[in-house]
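Reply to dn_fold:

You asked what the input looked like. This is it:
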Amino acid sequence: QVQLVESGGGLVQAGGSLRLSCAASGNIFRINTMGWYRQAPGKQRELVAQNTNGGTTNYADSVKGRFSISRDNAKNTVYLQMNSLKPEDTAVYYCMVTSPLLSWGQGTQVTVSS
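and this is what came back:
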């Protein structure tokens, strides 16, 4: 079983920045995809950004140019740098990893005030 521990969420004013981190531990065979999803109240969980071990990166259109995903394979850690935050970015952010099974973090709240 893989454990994912997220950190870095919080309250920030519009235009501000936050950096989320997610460290994977446990029964890790080989991590392939690492990424972030988010879920706002009353909405479905949606992809924010993800990165495969082969180097392919995908972003939601709504965050392109503002968010950046990176990973440190030696530390089994994925990061999400979020700049120019908007109130509509407010959500619970979930880390995900495939290693090779899919695992989810517990979620971290990001709140952007206007």
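The first strand starts at residue 2 and ends at 7.
Hope that clears it up.
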